[in-house]
Amino acid sequence: MKFSIRTRILTGVVLINLLGAIIVVVYMHQAGAGGLDIWAQNSLTVSGNSWTEVSKLGADELGDLTDPGAAQKYVDSVKAVSGADQGLLVDKAAMDQKAYEKALEAQGKPSNWDERDTYVLVASTSEAMSEKMQLQATPDTLPEIGKVVGIENGSCTAVCHKTIKGEGDFWKVSWSTDGNSRAHSVYPVADTKGQPVAVLYSIDDITTQAESSKNNIYQTMIVIGLTLLVSTLAIGGMLDAWVFKRLNRMIHSMEDLSVRVAGGDFEAKFVPDGSSDEIGQFETFFAKFLDLMTSTLRALTGGQ
Length: 304
Known about the structure:
single chain; about 300 residues; alpha+beta; Beta-Lactamase; 2 domains; six-stranded mixed sheet
């Protein structure tokens, strides 16, 4: 199938605009992901600072970290300051299993010692979030300032993140199955001797920020789409006005003049539109060529 030059040019313009739009959308997506990273880092900082302030109360007021009752006081206090759900994962190597299970039994709770390989979730502020608080890296391998473990993204599309599973210690970004976005971060916790023995696991709901970022991306995409539509129509209009209409005029004039000259009208002339652009230059050349040809034909026919 053959396409006109006009169709091919407009198709090229549309394809270039679409490519540009894809690049912009990818950039906006990366920018949105970068925003989530910043919010996650802020969440880590707030939770870490909250723990620092709460831990100043010490064992005299709150009790030992390995005691479920005392640990609950710690995480509740941190959540009250930070706003994020908290869980205290204590390294099994720093605990007495029998003493811990006895403390749970006194509270009427079953043992959760075997739920995790490296840690015991001694306390958490949310039963629903407890299952998500998973970590294998030991406290001494974590930076003193803590680390963002990953982000559950519920504002993006499933195509982007659904294939990425939230597994492993540092899983970065995964698709959120409930549509909410959350930042996961961990902060090493030391005992009275300064040895890291536990991890504060924070899960902060950043759905509002993620939705705001998504809305900004959608709005930008709408603006880009409208801009591309207008630019395509404008380019098409300019091509019609500046190129194709003039070419059609010239083609029709050349066809008419060719018929007239073939019929013996050697006085036929072509009048350029007077422009100095490429089409105007061609029209001037054609007018001179036609004058030369008709003059030659008049001479050959004796001026008839």
